[in-house]
What we know:
2 domains; alpha+beta
Amino acid sequence: MSTRKILYKTHLWTAIITMLPLGIMIISGILLQLKKDISWIQPATQQGSDTVPQLTFEEILAQCRTLDTLKIKTWEDIERLDIRPGKGIIKILAKNNYEIQLDSQTGKVLHIAYRRSDIIENIHDGSIFSSVIKKWIFIPSAFIALALYLSGIYLTWKRLNKN
Length: 163
C-alpha cells in the first residue's frame, strides 16, 4: 500500500473519529474569539470615574451583598475579583457566573450581567464534561487535528506536484 493511500485512509478515519470533539472545540473557539465583541458572551467593560481605586474590600463585599442577583453573602460566594485601575472599575464574578462592575472610586454599580465566557472556555477544553474526557478525548483530538492538518498539506502537495 502506498504512503498516499495510508495517509488518505488515516486522514479519513481520524477525521470521522474526532469529528464531535473537534466540532465542539471549533465552535466554542470561535465564540471565545468574539467574547469582547458580543456582550452575551462576556459583559462589556464599563468606564469608572477615576483610575485610583478607593473602595476597601469590606465596601466591595457590602455592595455585592445588596444585589440579590449575585447571591453573594460571603467571600466564598465570589469566584474572582478583577481590579482595572486604567478603566476605574472593579469586576466581581460571583460563583453563579453573574458579573458586577463597580466604579472603583464611588462604589456605584455600573453593570450587572451573566458571564458565559468561562463556561464556553470549559466547553472548549473539555473540562466541563470531566477531567478524564478532557485528558483522553479532547487533548488527543487536538493532536489528531494537527496530524490531519499536516497530512492534508502533504496530500495536497503530492496531488499538486503530480500534475
